[in-house]
Design brief:
34% strand
Length: 149
């Protein structure tokens, strides 16, 4: 699996719980654009419309060699392909437990573009500061162990 895009802000802004893999409905030129590394998950999220899930606000610019495409919207909602029971569990979690669905990474698996989705709960400001403090102390410990060895 070749990871193409990773959502760095997801782990900073949210507590990530369970992860799952989903396919995405894309046009041909969007697939080529993604495989060349042109996708941004910054600010993207998953929305529920009826009994379907959509990847919203993910920026996929048009493929350079595709020519002009009329009325192309790079941030249009894209349908996610999951089994009915997986969709039902996500919808149930998001409504009952107040969780959000966040795309964490995009990768290619057996020639298909896949999106990893995580259920998440938002972090408060003090949680973010705590995460930064833990990361800094871990770096400091590793640095001192390296110099003492």
């Amino acid at each position: 699996m070749k990871t193409i895009a990773f959502n760095k802000r997801a782990s900073y802004d949210y507590f990530l719980h369970s992860h799952t893999e989903a396919g995405v409905v894309l046009s041909g030129q969007e697939v080529r654009s993604i495989k060349t590394g042109h996708i941004s998950l910054k600010g993207s999220f998953v929305t529920v419309k009826g009994s379907e899930l959509y990847l919203t606000n993910a920026n996929i610019p048009p493929y350079i060699h595709a020519g002009e495409i009329k009325n192309y919207d790079p941030t249009r909602p894209r349908k996610l392909l999951l089994k009915k029971n997986e969709i039902a569990s996500f919808i149930g979690k998001s409504k009952a437990e107040g969780m959000t669905l966040i795309p964490t990474r995009v990768y290619v698996k057996k020639g298909k573009v896949k999106v990893e989705i995580a259920t998440a709960t938002g972090k408060k400001k003090y949680d973010k500061r705590d995460t930064i403090a833990k990361r800094e102390s871990k770096r400091r410990i590793e640095r001192t162990l390296r110099t003492n060895s």
